[in-house]
Amino acid sequence: METPILLGLNSAQRDAVTSAATVLQVLAPPGSGKTKTLTARVAYLIAHHRLKPWNIIVCTFTRKAAREMADRVRGLVGDEVAKQLKLGTFHSIASRYLRQYGQHIGLAKDFGIADAADSRAIVKRIVKQNRFSMDPSNAHNRISAQKTKGINSTEFSRQAGRKVDLQEFLQIYREYEAILAASNLLDYDDLLLKCRDLLSKHPECVSNVEAVLIDEFQDTNNIQYELMGLFAHQRNTITIVGDPDQSIYGFRMAEIKNLVRMKQQWENTIVINLSENYRSSGAILKAAQNIIEQDPNRPAKKLQATHSLGLRPVLRKLPSANAEARWIVSEIQRLQALTGELLQLNDVAILLRSAYLSRSIETALGKTGLPYRMVGGTRFYDRVEIKLALDYLRVVDQPDNSEAVARIVNVPSRRVGEATVEGLLFEARVKARSLWSIILETVHGRYSPTTKLNEPARKGLAMFVNVIIGVRKKLKEAESRPVFSLADILMFVLKKIEFQSYLKKKFPDEYEARWTSVEELLMQASEASNPDRIQAMLEESNLPVIEGCEQRVPSTDDVLSLFLENVALTASAEHIAEESGEVKQQITISTIHAAKGLEWPIVFIPACYDGSIPHSRAEDRDEERRLLYVGMTRAQALLYLSIPLKNSQREDATLSTFLIQPGVATFFEEHGPSITFPVVQSLATTLRRIAPLADAIREHKKGLERDEDNYWPLNGEEPLEELARWDQDHSNNFVLAPVPSKPVASFAYAQITTLQQGFASTGPAPISAGFTSVRAHYDGLMAQARLQRVDRRTEECTK
DNA sequence: GCACGAGCCATTTTT
DNA sequence: TGGCTCGTGC
Ligand SMILES: Nc1ncnc2c1ncn2[C@@H]1O[C@H](COP(=O)(O)OP(=O)(O)OP(=O)(O)O)[C@@H](O)[C@H]1O
């Protein structure tokens, strides 16, 4: 039967969507429509099998993937139905179950969530207090790894026995668990673990579930795998999609083996493969294939391009990270203009191995005024001013969260220093009380701490108590009123602690920016407390009623808690900004990890050098290769890889191992393509868009400085202009030589580009004869400049 | 004991 | 960039 759900699917995809199999694996390469298939199957289960949306669980790994999935499902089944689905990251779904049924496994009802920063801070404090030598982030990673294996500190201690080298870690692990428990916090791993415990002891909580669907299954870890089975225990209806080649979360204990394990556990598992790629041009796919096939252990797979060859990807050398950034900017501008704005800023993504690499790029974009959004990296909620504001809210919500109390009790300064806080914290731990209760009793004179308190500190504590109690009172009042405004509460906090003057003092130069982000938070808070939104939030977190299974239904008293949970588990600031405002054209900067499952017409992957990708600290080189593969396969029409010959610390950088393998070079051009009219038309076809008129292009071209990628020498050296400028900038009044207005270099490059104008020609880029002479000229000038500098220095010394 | 400024450092990836 | 230590002055 023909239904709209199946429109635009190929036959293999249809088979997968309509498969009668109860346990189904769809394994397929990037861009083959896995996500599309999964969303269609959700719609199909609802429309044809009459499953109730609230009995369907759809899990993803990243928040972004969850959002993408939600958007796509909404497109198929509509708003109403979509929001009834239980869709989200594993962690957010686990958290919903724990909120409503946690009491069955003795979980306090209002647990808070310790995010990565909290966990790190806790471990750091433990290490410091005990004067341990272990690196805190390493310790935290190990704790997380143990948890994922289902080994708690007691179990670890049993296994470790008396091995000396493990004692320190064991101690950290123990204290970490104790601190979380004392503050009524669950960390990310706990959410999964506790949910597993809950569902294995009380499977009735999920007895309503009719189908479970998992995206990016190759990234499941053991606990998530078990959760999947537990969710599905009633009907055993499971659909997963995944691609072993895109497994990039090994560091988070993802287990590719889960694919096999699943087939063993459910012997009726049906596997469907998709092999046609609908995303990328043929040339991009070939290059990506070549990279992934470098892994000798990888079984051969079919991957067919549905698009034509298109433009060959680019592998560009630049002198430095800053030059690389400027080059990216100029290529974006060039493409925009020469395609007559067929390509917009939204079409461009810059994907990075590590978030910190964005700095030079952000600077360059900032200088040009090109708007961009940064995903991943220092997220909105990680900014100091935002974290501080949120910590106040967390303490107001949950004063027994000693970690948060410890962080804010002296910010802004109340003359309660580190020593005092440490002392009180220690007392609290010994007495098995929360830091808040110790402080409160002390201030009320009902308790005299052994920690010495001078008068200013005593006063400071009293002020702090006053703030928190004041806000809590206000919160209570507000909750009982019909209109509840979270923004008011937050504003009240900020006023009480004189946050503005604090920011002014702490960040005299960037006060404006900091306050703007606080305003953004206020806006989010105000939106979150809009009645419709509250309703939606409650509905979303609410699980279906199950007979004989007592549940705690969230109410308006929980708005603050839900808001905070949302921040920890699902919110992403840029999304909220998008929803509230106009959709503006902007470039996306993202980590490769966060880009998984997404696609853009143009993708840049800068910093392709050894040490960055593969990362110097990576344990699994194959995973690094897959990472590059994932990055490359995000591109639809044009892919740029690049490398600065000096990295951001100005050390020499060499091309990534993955890119120097024999034959790789043949898949790449050495510079950006010439954008001729046929190229524009071909781009339009790949992107399924309408090509602009030649006139439009001519018009845009006018504002452009150069229409070829020929400013930076292909060998990655500084161009002549830069050299001259460098000398002007750095040696007073010393000028190298008159700078030719149209440098010789660019003339020679222009020749090269004309030679290669037919795109996707095969074979490596030919080196033009003219190039050597330009090189020689350039080298001569360099040498000359160097000599003159040396002369001058000698002169200065002899003076 | 506390606040604050200068200088030094490295910097993976996510829930 | 920001996160840390160290030194200084209160
Ligand atoms: N049958 C089809 N016809 C046309 N376009 C399709 C078809 N199937 C998928 N596409 C398109 O191909 C692109 C990639 O699809 P999708 O994101 O679902 O792939 P994927 O397999 O999930 O990729 P990845 O593994 O990289 O996440 C999307 O733009 C989608 O609309």
- Molecular shape: globular
Across the major sheet, the strand order is: 3-2-6-7-1-8
Fraction in helix: 40-55%
Count of DSSP H/I helices: 33
What is the CATH topology assignment of the largest domain?
Answer: Rossmann fold
Looking at CATH, the homologous superfamily of the largest domain is P-loop containing nucleotide triphosphate hydrolases
Number of separate strands: 16
> What is the CATH-assigned architecture of the largest domain?
3-Layer(aba) Sandwich
- Would you tell me the overall average pLDDT? 86
Give unreliable regions as ranges: 730-799
Structural class: alpha/beta
Cα-atom radius of gyration: 29 Å
How many angstroms does the end-to-end distance come to? 93 Å
Q: How many strands, what sense, and barrel or not for the largest sheet?
A: 6 strands, parallel
Instruction: Count structural domains.
Output: 5
Percent strand? 5-15%
Any idea of the CATH class of the largest domain? Alpha Beta
Listed once per kind, the bound small molecules are:
adenosine-5'-triphosphate
Would you summarize the structure shown here?
By secondary structure, the chain is of the alpha/beta class.
Describe this structure in words.
This protein is α/β, with parallel strands linked by helices and 799 residues long. It folds into 5 domains: 4-104 and 192-278, Rossmann fold, CATH 3.40.50; 114-183, Arc Repressor Mutant, subunit A (Orthogonal Bundle), CATH 1.10.10; 287-295 and 306-371 and 585-701, 3-Layer(aba) Sandwich (Rossmann fold); 382-542 and 556-562, Orthogonal Bundle (PCRA, domain 4), CATH 1.10.486.10; 720-798, no CATH class. It contains 33 helices and 16 strands. The strands form 4 sheets. The protein has a 6-stranded parallel β-sheet, with helices on both faces. A 6-stranded parallel β-sheet has the order 11-16-15-12-14-13. Strands 4-5 form a two-stranded parallel ribbon. Adenosine-5'-triphosphate (ATP) is lined by residues 8-10, 13, 28, 30-36, 243, 246, 278-279, 597, 599, 633. The protein binds a DNA duplex (15 and 10 nucleotides) through helix 5, helix 10, helix 18 and helix 27.
